[in-house]
Design brief:
This protein is of the alpha+beta class. The chain contains twelve helices and 37 strands. Helices cover about 20% and strands about 45% of the residues. The protein is elongated. The longest helix has 18 residues. It folds into six domains: about 80 residues, Roll (Ubiquitin-like (UB roll)); about 80 residues, membrane protein fhac (Ubiquitin-like (UB roll), Roll); about 80 residues, membrane protein fhac (Ubiquitin-like (UB roll)), CATH 3.10.20; about 80 residues, Ubiquitin-like (UB roll) (Roll), CATH 3.10.20; about 70 residues, Ubiquitin-like (UB roll) (Roll); about 325 residues, Beta Barrel (Porin). The protein has a 17-stranded antiparallel sheet that branches. It has a three-stranded mixed sheet with strand order 2-5-4, covered by helices on one side.
């Protein structure tokens, strides 16, 4: 190495050593320049600056980092000399307003404001503009607007403030033109289309949201397909949405790739009960295990077993029982080990309810089977959520468990989404005797207290009736139902029954659970009625003329073992009723039995049997004309209400006995590609017979029957229900009704 090279090398080393030496000074004074909005005190707090502290070079670097983290400043420089700390800053602008142009929906604007990083009254960071634009795009793409365009303009205002204006061009929604299923799928496309929620765009699906691409919906579809295959025994199934492709002029093509794999059966199922627990309560499970061994593997069946364990634990009052599942592939079968053990014991510290803007908290809390301070029970919590869903005032109900203030305390968070609870319904029935009309108005969540208020009117050729009812399904938060109703009717049945009648009635009743699934429903009924006979009426009808005051005591006993109250798929419900006269001008006793049985015949067919029987007997004479029995139209579809049974001349006089037996098959997947529609085919049978006299009476013992189809269709106007029926057997005097419909809207 030459002499000059050595000198240069030494100089370089000396320079770096000299400049890398740290300095140390005590802060005596702090001065800030360039700040307009952020005070010296604020800077010292956020920078953790203390007069008299000893600062080194790394402390200065840390101070700069802390001040940048506040997002208050776009530029910062610091100098420490002779104990004087000088801070020069350039403040970021403050966001005055965030404006969305091109979007009219207030609810969307509100959601977007909550999603963005850059919000009003916060510091503007230019780097966040791009990420916020992407957030907005993702939001609209999830709504189906895949072609959305977003532009951002920054408008400078006085005092270092700005407005951010987002120009939104949503474009057209991305329609799904085709849905394909590829791979080792083993199940036909038609059935797979029924499983998923996404739908191909068709002319008749103009109101369906499911025909537009939605990332969240696609992820849901993947889970639905996976669960469907696993319920069919394909334990190792793999599902992916492999491709979303745009076709010019048509729309998007959505493709699901499926690898079903091998189909497995349950080979062995057994319970592994922890040594710390008594094994005797769980011995009965062995029978349930053996019932499905040899069946194809099914998540649904496995879940049903776990639910039985939960119910057994509740019945035996075994708290904090938990379980886990271990599954092992053995040859062409699956061995399932259900581990039953004592879970973590914790109490519910607090219950938080969110999402309810109309419904009172007390209404929601009253449906919960657990309270603050109670031991946590997964079974009771799940039952509580199902009870809330059954109220019919929420579109969604979810829950989650959050850590409490102590390890053995948890917070139960219940989230609800309210739905429109008001409804207007109008309908008509068309039959051999003309057309009958109805109108009804109801509110299911009056004053946010979960109270149902309903009023309506029925108008036909011979009768006008109106009703007003108030039902509190959870009176005083006791879990008991209390209801009252007012009924007013005017009947001109001279042409068909030979009399006129006006009646005003008032009812007051309650319903409560006496034992598990056993309900009692006592009631008191008051009524005043005036009957006048036509001059051409029979002598028997004329004998019924007069004014009558009635006070009746009624009671009902019901047993409800359905798996769910709304659209049940399994179980049964039966009810016995009786009405006894307390004060009546013409006394009679009404007795009845009715019920229904449900069974899922397959995934696509829910079968049910519905039975109905009533009898009425006079205590001190003939049964009054208006107290005789007629079959309700829903029990014998295809026939007009009150136009079946004994006839005295031209007058329908009703009977002392009425019965019906109906067979139904609900077909939930009959029209999967159309609008959401519930289809039911039915066979109804029934009869009304026997009165207290025989003169001039035509009383046919012939069993009436009909077949037909009913549907509930959810249209853009509102729910539409209709029934199309055809009588099979009837008496010559019966009047039929082939078509009946109702149309409503929610508000």
């Amino acid at each position: 190495m030459s002499f000059f090279k050595r000198i240069f090398f030494v100089f370089i080393i000396f320079y770096f050593v000299f400049n890398s030496q740290s300095y140390s000074e005590i802060i005596k004074k702090v001065k800030v320049l360039g700040n307009d909005r952020v005070s010296l005190e604020t800077i010292m707090v956020f920078g953790d600056i203390t007069i008299g502290s000893n600062y080194e070079s790394e402390d200065i670097n840390l101070l700069i980092k802390k001040l940048y983290e506040t997002t208050f400043f776009s530029n910062i420089s610091i100098n420490l000399e002779n104990g004087n700390l000088s801070i020069v800053v350039a403040e970021n602008p403050i966001i005055n307003s965030v404006i969305f142009e091109g979007e009219k929906a207030k609810k969307y604007k509100k959601v977007l404001h909550e999603l963005l990083v850059l919000r009003e009254k916060t510091s503007f960071l230019k780097n966040n503009i791009k990420s916020d634009i992407n957030i907005i795009k993702e939001f609209y793409r999830n709504l189906g607007f895949y072609f959305v365009k977003i532009d951002a303009v920054i408008k400078e205002l006085a005092k270092n403030r700005i407005d951010i204006v987002y120009s939104i061009d949503k474009g057209n929604k991305a329609k799904i033109s085709k849905i394909f299923f590829i791979g080792d799928k083993k199940i036909r496309d038609k059935r797979l289309s029924d499983v998923i929620t996404s739908q191909e765009s068709k002319v008749w699906k103009v109101v369906s949201k499911n025909v537009y691409l939605n990332k969240g919906r696609i992820e849901l579809d993947k889970r639905l397909l996976t669960n469907y295959y696993k319920n069919k025994g394909f334990y190792e199934v793999e599902v992916s949405s492999s491709n979303v492709e745009y076709s010019e002029g048509e729309g998007f093509i959505l493709t699901f790739s499926i690898n079903a794999g091998t189909r497995y059966k349950f080979k062995k199922i057994f319970a592994n009960v922890s040594e710390s627990l008594d094994k005797k309560p769980f011995v009965s499970l062995e029978k349930d295990f053996n019932n499905i061994i040899g069946d194809y593997y099914s998540l649904r069946k496995l879940t049903s077993l776990l639910e039985k364990i939960d119910k057994l634990s509740e019945k035996k009052e075994l708290q904090f029982i938990n379980h886990s599942v271990s599954e092992t592939l053995v040859g062409n079968g699956i061995e399932v080990k259900i581990n039953i053990f004592e879970g973590q014991k914790f109490l519910i510290e607090r219950i938080n309810i969110v999402g309810n803007s109309v419904t009172n908290d007390s209404v929601i809390r009253s449906e919960l089977l657990v309270d603050e301070g109670d031991p946590y029970s997964a079974l009771l919590v799940n039952k509580s959520i199902n009870r809330l869903k059954g109220r019919g005032i929420f579109s969604t109900v979810t829950h989650e468990i959050i850590e409490g203030s102590l390890p053995d305390l948890k917070v139960l968070k219940v989230s609800v989404e309210e739905k429109a609870t008001g409804e207007i319904m109008a309908g008509a029935g068309v039959g051999t005797d003309g057309t009958a009309f109805m109108f009804a108005l109801s509110e299911n969540n009056w004053l946010g207290r979960g109270i149902k208020v309903e009023g309506g009117a029925d108008i036909s050729k011979s009768k006008i009736s109106g009703n007003l009812s108030v039902v509190n399904p959870n009176y005083n938060y006791t879990g008991n139902v209390v209801y009252s109703s007012l009924n007013i009717s005017s009947t001109d049945a001279k042409d068909t029954s030979g009399y006129e009648s006006s009646k005003t009635g008032f009812s007051l009743g309650t319903k409560f659970e006496q034992y598990e699934n056993v309900y009692l429903s006592p009631s008191i009924d008051f009524s005043y009625e005036d009957i006048s006979a036509d001059s051409t009426a029979t002598a028997t009808v004329k004998k019924m003329e007069g004014s009558f005051t009635n006070v009746d005591f009624g009671y009902g006993i019901s047993l409800d073992k359905r798996n769910q109250s709304f659209q049940p798929t399994d179980g049964y419900k039966t009810e016995f009723i009786q009405t006894l006269p307390l004060l009546q001008d013409s006394s009679s006793i009404l007795t009845g039995l009715s019920g229904s049985i449900y069974h899922a015949m397959s995934e696509n067919v829910i079968g049910s049997i519905k039975y109905y029987a009533r009898s009425v007997h006079g205590v001190d004479g003939d049964v009054r004309l208006t107290n005789r029995l007629f079959l309700p139209s829903k029990r014998l579809r295809g026939f007009q209400a009150s136009k079946v049974g004994p006839v005295d001349g031209d007058d329908f006089v009703g009977g002392n006995y009425a019965t019906s037996l109906g067979f139904e098959a609900a077909l939930p997947n009959l029209l999967p590609e159309a609008m959401k529609t519930d289809i039911t085919v039915f066979l109804d049978t029934g009869n009304v017979w026997s009165v207290d006299y025989n003169e001039s009476l035509e009383d046919s013992n012939k069993i009436r029957s009909s077949v037909g189809i009913s549907a509930n269709v959810f249209t853009m106007v509102g729910p539409l229900s209709f029934t199309l029926a055809q009588d099979i057997t009837k008496a010559s005097t019966d009047l039929t009704e082939t078509f009946n419909f109702r149309l409503g809207t929610s508000f």
